[in-house]
Amino acid sequence: MNYYIYLISSLPSLSFDTKPPFSFDDFLSRCKGLVSDEDIDIIRNAGETVSDHVRVKNMTFRKRLSFEMMLRNELVKIRSSRKKVDPAKYLREDGYPESGYISHIAINAYRKPSILEAEKALDLERWRYLEELSMGHYFDIDIMIIYACKLLLAEKWDKIRSAETDRMLEEVLN
After folding, report:
1. Are 2 and 35 in contact (CB under 8 A)?
2. For 122-154, how does the pLDDT look when each residue is reduced to its tens digit (9 = 90+)?
3. Which residues does residue 32 pair with via DSSP β-bridges, in sequence order?
4. pLDDT digits (tens, 9 = 90+) for 56-110
5. Cβ contacts of residue 99 below 8 Å, gap of 6+?
6. Which of 60, 119, 147, 152 has a CA 20 to 30 Å removed from the CA of 45?
7. Is pTM beyond 0.70 here?
């Protein structure tokens, strides 16, 4: 097991609603020389949303993938019931369990008045789940995976915020 005390303690904290301190690529660059090549590969793929979870050896990574698949399956069920389509051909039944908690998240997001609000609600729940996964991890690969996932979410919303600002500025100037 590797402990990355220096690297992890030097990383700034992340917040969902603030601009990330650096990009995901910069994060990977910071890891070079301090993190094993095998762990860098795991971190690089941390943001994957669809993967063969059986092949993933890291339990934190597997749990995150499982959460994501459960959430996506619930969204498929909700959308297909609205369109009166059989969801079976769209569901991933690769050993991902069902969860009432996940159903609640999906329904709440689906009820949001805009797609952007729904996506934000889903990403906030993803962030909360990552916080939950971080319990008991301090200077190991698991906290690096969680940090990478959070950084990717923060980057995503920074791009969305800047795109909205650009669009609003353009509307005002025209």
Report:
1. yes
2. 999 999 999 999 999 999 999 999 999 999 999
3. 35
4. 788 999 899 989 989 999 999 998 988 889 888 888 766 556 678 899 999 999 9
5. 70
6. 119
7. yes
